[in-house]
């Protein structure tokens, strides 16, 4: 049995494998980690991650173009996937070279003060006339609070709307300083993880499939020998 999925799927796979062992069944359960967030221990990267990073960079490039077309005070904000990990946002931002600020769930957001993001953005605007901001969807829960409302059957909680909150906060901050910020908010959402696999991911998927089959076959052979 080949299981492809995330945390919930693999919890189910483990339960199935234990049930097979308890029933003395010669069934191998091979788990293949699937998450666009790339936040699985024990693996270098999850399949599809590199393709998603490329798609994110297209959204970032669009945000940059829009921000540059509305100078001065042009601000492009891109919200990307990443419930509890900011790998997708960080890799896409670093790879593009066009991002001034990245907000991820692992690092608490400071809005104002010496280390605040709002004064930082205003300073960057003064220096280059426009800025590009990238944020992961799970960033900012320390500010907006954690929702207890479950979103889906997998047990995922609803996330606070960090994107609109940040856009409003930036607009308000600039108005308080006698200026208007020209905001462009881009949320590519599921289009990021629905693009065709690039060459690297296609090869990686083939290797994952081959090793999953090999691992399951080897496991079954060991069980058969032990039964004899």
List keywords for this structure.
2 domains, four-stranded parallel beta sheet, two-stranded parallel sheet, 7 helices, 46% helix, 13% strand, elongated, disordered C terminus
> Structural class of the secondary elements?
alpha/beta
The overall pLDDT, averaged over residues, is 89
Name the shape in a single word: elongated
Domain unit count: 2
Q: Can you list the strand order of the major beta sheet?
A: 4-5-3-6
Residue share in helices? 40-55%
User: Could you say what the CATH architecture of the largest domain is?
Assistant: 3-Layer(aba) Sandwich
Total strands: 6
The CATH superfamily of the largest domain bears the name Phosphofructokinase domain
Radius of gyration: 22 Å
Question: Could you tell me the strand content as a percent range?
Answer: 5-15%
Question: Which residues sit in consecutive blocks of at least 5 with pLDDT less than 50?
Answer: 222-228
CATH topology of the largest domain: Rossmann fold
Written as H for each helix and E for each strand, in order along the chain, the element string is EHEHEHEHEHHEH
Count of discrete alpha- or pi-helical segments spanning 4 or more residues: 7
| Through-space gap between termini | 22 Å
Largest sheet: 4 strands, parallel
The first-level CATH class name of the largest domain: Alpha Beta
What is the structure about, briefly put?
The protein is of the alpha/beta class and 228 residues long.
């Amino acid at each position: 049995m080949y299981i492809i999925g995330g945390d919930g799927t693999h919890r189910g796979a483990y339960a199935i494998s234990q049930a097979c062992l308890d029933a003395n069944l010669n069934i191998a359960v091979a788990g293949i980690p699937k998450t666009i967030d790339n936040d699985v221990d024990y693996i270098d990267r999850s399949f599809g991650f590199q393709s998603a990073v490329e798609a994110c960079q297209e959204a970032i490039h669009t945000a940059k173009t829009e921000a540059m077309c509305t100078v001065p005070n042009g601000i492009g904000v891109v919200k990307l996937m990443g419930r509890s990990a900011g790998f997708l946002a960080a890799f896409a931002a670093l790879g593009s070279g066009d991002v001034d600020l990245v907000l991820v769930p692992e690092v608490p957001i400071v809005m104002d003060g010496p280390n605040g993001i709002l004064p930082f953005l205003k300073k960057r605007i003064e220096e280059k006339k426009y800025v590009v901001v990238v944020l992961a969807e799970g960033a900012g829960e320390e500010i907006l609070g954690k929702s207890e409302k479950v979103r889906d059957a997998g047990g995922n909680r609803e996330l606070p709307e960090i994107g609109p909150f940040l856009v409003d906060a930036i607009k308000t901050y600039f108005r308080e300083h006698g200026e208007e910020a020209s905001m462009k908010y881009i949320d590519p959402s599921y289009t990021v993880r629905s693009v065709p696999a690039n060459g690297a991911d296609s090869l990686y998927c083939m290797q994952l499939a081959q090793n999953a089959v090999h691992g399951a076959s080897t496991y079954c052979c060991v069980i058969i020998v032990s039964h004899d």
